[in-house]
Amino acid sequence: MGIRRGEITTKIVSDGLVFNMDPANRACYPKTGTTTTDTIGNNVGTLSTTPLLSDSNFGVWELDGSDDNILLSSDITFPAAFSLSVWVNPDDVSDQNFLGDGSSSNNWIQIKSATQFKVKLKSTVTVFNESSGNNFAADEWQNIFITRDSSNNLTVYRNAIIFGSTTTNSVTDSTYSTIGNGTSSKYFDGEIGPIQTYNRALSAEEVLSNYNGLRGRFGV
Length: 220
Description:
Elements: E1 17-21, E2 35-37, E3 44-47, E4 53-54, E5 60-64, E6 70-78, E7 82-90, E8 96-100, E9 108-113, E10 116-121, E11 124-129, E12 142-148, E13 153-158, E14 161-167, E15 174-179, E16 181-183, E17 186-187, E18 189-198, H1 204-214
Antiparallel strand pairs: 1-18, 2-3, 3-6, 4-5, 5-18, 6-15, 7-12, 7-18, 8-9, 8-15, 9-10, 10-11, 12-13, 13-14, 16-17
């Protein structure tokens, strides 16, 4: 049987899933052309150039850190409670923006350094600093998972282990239009795999379940 649009082809949580873009899924990207599709909400992404697809790990986006990005036809919008999961393999860990609003700078998500991570929601920047050794690494696949619950508790996980957590202001409807480009001058350098967003905060157990469902693909 062929892959059906909207089918969850990886072992991830489906409850609340609103965006699922996996370059290994032929329903997302048929390995040719400049168009990729979110298999849940049919959000269409336009590749800035081709080929962006690498066949490693069954299919991932390979971005040059200069001008490569994927522009979405509809913004990814985070409500009051949300989750974001993305697999990344950065060439370095300095100012690596993997999601943003393109030419503006109101909303972006960034690996600032091996020990610092930043989330910008409607011009409000939340900084996470890690001191226990669960650091971001260059030339290594890792899963980044961000959740915010209805009480505004914002948590960042690296490989299902909490990198940092804090309580933020009540910020809703932050929009992101570009994968691999945070602002006009911040491009991601490295590889990006599956990206999923949810309209609720996943539990720590669900974050671990998603991580375990895909870690074999990325040799983690």
